[in-house]
């Protein structure tokens, strides 16, 4: 997921999920990693063996130079099979569709304003779907699951869009105040999903064969887990265990490297990082149990750029 910037001057959706760290920032992020160079973007994609990329923001069409630059960069590096899709909350025009297609974009997912969902016919949101297709892009909708209008289903039926992804309506730090004001509440059994917006609540919309519902649990858990699992083998050190969830487990100890050498620990089973020894957790556990060294901690962390720690277990 490439975040090109946090600006969105054309829309002001009350449910926009962008939090303080993303809203109106000029910084590019590849997943959670701040990007300083093109190589950072390529490295982030390589690390997770990405088969494709998505371009988001803010509003990617408000910075076409940056957006097309990254699309070309990814296509040039990973080839035609690397599928790239882009999310947008504005229509753009023919020239923009052409520039995106020429840069290598495969698919564009429009997010029209909710007030129009029952009434897309005859608007430029309809026309741009045909234009995008003529310029070589696959046109789709990707919208939050707020309400299902019958007219919207009829519109989908007519075939201007290839498919419609509906994201379960979510509350986040960035939007909960405004969502509350609009009368939305969080489901009590869920961290972010909105009451009254589950797949069952959207049954009429989701019943259409071109409509796919993406639950927030799936987005958070399954997609995240898949990304971790693909990333872990590319970034793990030889002495780290990769768990089924794609996290990395290793040990940390204050013991001197010389003591490890004395105990016959092979070089490839530990590394000194910031003055601490990071080591295979099973060796650390055994050495602490045997009283060979004084203590340590087992760390489980994400294989991501920010190395977020999931669990610490003192020995
Ligand atoms: C944050 S937007 C950024 C890209 C672009 N500005 C747009 O709106 O498509 C990315 C995706 O998030 C979805 N989205 C926005 N607010 C949401 C919410 N509260 N719950 C679930 N999905 C949401 C939008 O439909 C869009 O597909
Ligand atoms: S169009 Fe996208 S980025 Fe802009 S306010 Fe709406 S959800 Fe947020």
Automatic annotation (TrEMBL):
The keyword Membrane does not apply. This is Radical SAM protein. It comes from the Archaea. Keywords: Iron, Iron-sulfur, Metal-binding, S-adenosyl-L-methionine. The keyword S-adenosyl-L-methionine applies. Pfam families: DUF8061, Fer4_12. One of its GO terms (molecular function) is iron-sulfur cluster binding. Residues 1-209 form the Radical SAM core domain. InterPro entries: Aldolase_TIM, DUF8061, MJ0021-like, rSAM, rSAM_sf.
